[in-house]
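RETRY 2/3 - previous attempt timed out on the joint model. Re-submitting the same 1457-residue input unchanged.
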Amino acid sequence: MTTDLSRRGFLAGGGTAAVTTFGFNLEAATAVAKELKIARTTQTHSVCPYCAVGCSVVIHTLGDKARNVKPAVVHIEGDPESPINRGTLCSKGASLKEFVNSDLRLTRPKYRAPGAADWKEISWEEAFEKMARRMKETRDAGFEEKDSQGRTVNRLANLAMIGGCTDTNEVNYLLGKFRFGLGVLGYENQARL
Amino acid sequence: MKIDRFNVRERFVHWLVAISFVYAALSGLAMWSRHLFWIAGVLGGGETVRALHPWGGTIFALVLGVMFSRWASQMKLDAADREWLAKSGRYMVNDEKGMPESGKFNGGQKMLFWVEAAFALLLFLSGAILWFPEITPRVLRLGAVLVHPLAAIGSIGGIIVHIYMSLFAVPGSLKAMTEGYVSARWAKAHHPKWFRQRTKNENESAR
Amino acid sequence: MQTVAKLIDTSLCIGCKACEVACQEWNDQEFTLGTFGGTYQTMPQLEHNFWNLIKFNEFETDGQMSWLMMKYQCMHCQDAGCMKACPSPGAIVRLPNGTVDFNHDNCIGCGYCITGCPFDVPRLSPETKKVYKCTLCSDRTAVGLEPACIKTCPTNCLTFGTRTDLLRKAEDRAHELQADGLQHAGVYNPAGVGGTNVIYVLKDASAPESYGLPRDPTIPWTVSLWKGPVKVLGSMVFLGGILGTFFHYIRYGPKKEEEHADED
Amino acid sequence: MTNGWTDVANADVILVMGGNPAENHPVGFRFVMEAKRKRKAKIVCVDPRFTRTAAVSDCYVPIRSGTDIAFLGGIINYSLSKGLYQAEYVRQHTNASFLLHKDFGFDAGHFSGWDEAKKSYDKTTWQYELDGSGFAKVDPTLEHPQSVFQQMRKHYSRYTPEKVAEICGCTAEDFLKAAAIVCSASPEDKSGTILYALGWTQHSFAVQLIHTAAMVQLLMGNIGMPGGGVNAQRGHANIQGATDMGTWNNLPGYLKIPRANMQSLDDYLKANTPKPLRPNSMNYWGNTPKFMTSLLKAYYGEQATKENGFGYQWIPKAGETENYGWGYMYDNMLAGKIEGLISFGMNPVANGPNTKKMLAALSKLKWLIVAENFETETSAFWNAKKLAEKYYPASGDPSQIQTEVFLLPASCFAEKDGAFVNSSRWLQWKDAALDPPGDAKRDQEIIAQLFTRIRTLYQKEGGKGADQLLNMQWNYATPLSPSLTEVAREVNGRDLTTGKQLSGFGELKDDGTTICGNWIYSGSWTEAGNNMARRGQDDPTGLGLYPNYSWSWPANRRILYNRASADANGKPWDETRAPLRWANGRWSGDVPDYKGDAQPDKLGSFIMLPEGVAKFFTADLVEGPFPEHYEPVESPVENALHSNVSANPSAKIFHAEMDKLGTSKDFPYVGITYRLTEHFHYWTKNMQASSELQSNFFVEIPDGLAKEKSIRNGDQVRVSTARGNVEGPALVTKRFRGLKVGGKTVYQVGLPIHWGFVGHIKGPLINNLTASVYDPNSGTPEYKGFLVNLEKI
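RETRY 2/3 succeeded.
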């Protein structure tokens, strides 16, 4: 969905500044030269990732989704269609653009070897291989098929998983399958804190 | 006969004062009224004017300071000057009979000196306040916005008279500030006391 | 075009600072990470890159705490001191919808507007040497969007509309608050500056100072004098000086050297 | 939330306690302001600090942290003794009339059944008197001395206004003023809501606190009513959804984790399917077999057969008394019992109690996987000594920490689709606006890759429990990056015989012919499409329910227990606020929390409970069937009700070497931690916009204490506990005052949480101070009310 705001209307008469330099148009109602930065953006509906009020937001991205455009977020503001926030946002929600665009965002997998004093970058492939190997070693070492009384328990107590409160239901459902596939019982989220 | 009136140094200082004054005055006028903002266009645009006007004023104040230190002692008003001033109405209508004789500077010139110096001081102080509106106290700025234009009006007014006198009203005056000398006739006519002093000195030194 | 306005109902402000951030974000301001100021208030005062500040004021009266929070920004005065003081044509403009906006192409950075403003709002940027303040998001209002601060305000403390409507709404709300027991509730739309396009409903309009608002703001008298009578005086002096000397010359002509020479 | 954000606007009374929504949920708070503006609702704010919520309240009462049960208990006593409760509601919709075991009682801090040696209760006497057919005996007159109502009256008669004032540190007048406003919601045509958050849940008696709130609301007749309810304001975007999807002790949809003694599916269902306690109880959890079977079928697909109990054996089983909760997790980690930790968007070093213990525990891991948007204290834990030596001088040098750490760049909210569940239980679908930056990947891809690769290893090499891992169904169209719409459809469930999406959990079967990934979400993606993405603006009841906007669990019901909004004949208590109406043989309005066509008097109104009615009295909790005031584990005073049992006898306290507790001799003040409106948790220190609003950590100090200690605003101070310390400038304020408790002045010190050792702004981690002390029911740490010392430095 693309906004149909035209920038023509409000840029009309942009040349008055030159005239006034020579003092002939003293009270010129100078046109606003600043362009509306969301005049030609693509809008996507999303939900604020912070607290659980669940405010809807509209993400304005650069470009019209054409093949040769890499979208970038130029602005995020409240979605007026949401009965919850009706377009409003709090101070954190109002700064979401920075969340997406922050230069502190992680963009490459990093690896810290045992005893190392620094990160080093690692490829996804190498990272996945290593992680899968570690998980298997741990599971093979810790998997309990039977408990001390000989009852089938099929559990894994030496591997724990946490998180989820910032992820979607669907990702959490997948995490749940991952968890139960491994037999993990130690599984917690922010609700406990 | 030529009589030296201002030496090179004095003339330099005077013209530095004059140029910086004119620049400060014009750039100031540009920022004083929207009707005169066109001057800013002539002087390189509003931002340039805003940036350089305080510097022009600062140079003006500095060289005026030099001029002041050089001339202040000569500008003391004596009894004759006061009498001259009291009778200055006659001077204005070119009916100078009965007016006391002037020295190197007449009472009017001395007054102009003091008045312009006082205005310059006010301009400099109030100008400094207005230069940095983001840091100077508001109450000072509120005073300065009044003092600065008033002092400017006064000093420009004075200078208009000064220019008129030197260029038109008293022919031959300009040479004193350009080439440094005046004719004996001129000196005798406008500053007889000074003329006598000078000729006496010359006679004495000639003797 | 109708004059638009912003209504700030202080009885509904919760100090959430959403308006502060919305303003910063929309206007792509550079952020300043500060030091601790000993208060919840973001910074002591408005800055050239911070145009919308919530002021926090704590009071204790008879053991009862009150914590007043109020958004502070350009008031978009009907009779704007900044415009009056500005020497540069087209630098401060009144848009057809009543907004007092700065056009930085024309701003020369003299800072007279800072002195002319009775609300201490405009600020000079040390980098660009130009003055900045709230624009009422003129780029948004131009296309029919509400200003960013108003859009984001969660509690309805801020509303946007025509000045006529909002003045009526403000009066109604003040009456409502009075009926609820806040007998001094009232509207802040100071006459001294011809009314403002930012209108407050105060829980105690008898003491606007407690919110950090001036009681009777007017364009400072020195500024009015400067931009009024002093200008006339100046024009008279300059024109009078030039014309006077000219006619003096015509009437009396130059001084003669002979007259004095004869006396010798 | 039993109700929802939009519904708060329907309230006449709003009690804000244990939360500070004006600061932490400002947008949700707009409905509070709307109620205040439009309905002239009265806001009561009870909080140790005069917060931004207090600033707009009609009545503010300062109390000592952790005395909320005393305060609410006082309100119960006030309500009962003044007759300010909705009698008909209480009689009809609650278990007030149920008769209790004749030996039930409470004495000197303990309920009946306390075993001092085991430090736990035998709950035999906490049961109802049953008749011959296994149903509870009732006395509709509520006058029987063994009735819940009379027992409750007796229990709370000790909570007099004077006692409340003595415990809480407020004045009796202030308490009475607040109680009067809260109880003004007792008439049938008035409703009041309670808003709470972590100010209640972060106590060693947290669940009991919420129990007390529910009791107050039942007395006022506020549960099920628009503008009523007990409403938790949750702190993270999908904390509700994450909990719905299962925690250590739950499968999705709050199905309990099997225990080792439940060896077969039948054992499990027998143990977890409740029986009705009254003849008219609908007892909806009686459908547990359908929910569980459909989940197992979703998990194990073809491998789940009737013969193998639908794959039940592959679900891991915990020991009968085992606990794998948060506190235990890190205690075990510290003891070296955990080798690997996978963290998806969580930062335990920052948000777990006793940071030094957290750091030490992580150092014992062999490996740690962290998927994040930003570097966190957790991913950088091995570098804590370098990054924050002031606080962790004894922390290990990186060279001594053998943990292998993987830090994976994940996608943020804007870069992925899927649904978040807000506090109102609304599932709101969002679309992806752009791709993750750089090499960052969407979370589902990271999970799928890990899962697929470890499965491949087991397929190739074999290994322990391989069938458990390999039988988990993962047959997505793009298995290495499953589409979340496909997953959402699986979560909703479908009928395997018709291949059609289920329209709701009413269609679930226990014979293996339906699959459903989470029964409470069934109805979210039906044949009609993705209901979570709906944007309908209509609001036919005018109550702000918006039935066609997004989708609410369960069954798109917006107000839980809404059957209780009407009397026995189905007549709404308040005609102007009726979420349900009974006419022409069916209920209309909100989705009824009742059988849609059942006569008003046919069934109990609380269909999820075996009693069929709401419970004042419950044997479900660990430390008692009625809430009782206990002091925080670290408290400056003894319990004024029973000094011999001062703190919660059932509180979970860990005793690792680093788990020290302090006494009021060394640590005379009370510390409380909280969020500021300027920041969000430990995230926004990465945001310049938020950091600009408040760059610095500070310590909020009451005016009186600052005077005593000659501390001026801005002076550097150190706050310490038996665990650690934090340093920062003081913010001296009158908004925080000393409270008179039992003849002495107790000062509280405010500690905002948002800083750490990575990000744009840095400061101490507040959990340097907190203790590994937990609520025994929920396993939430006690972050409000612990003992601190304060020094000027």
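Chain D touches chain C at residues 22-23, 26-27, 29-30, 33-34, 37, 40, 50, 52-56, 60, 676-678, 688-696, 698, 713-714, 728-729, 731-735, 760-761 (CB under 8 Å). Closing ticket.
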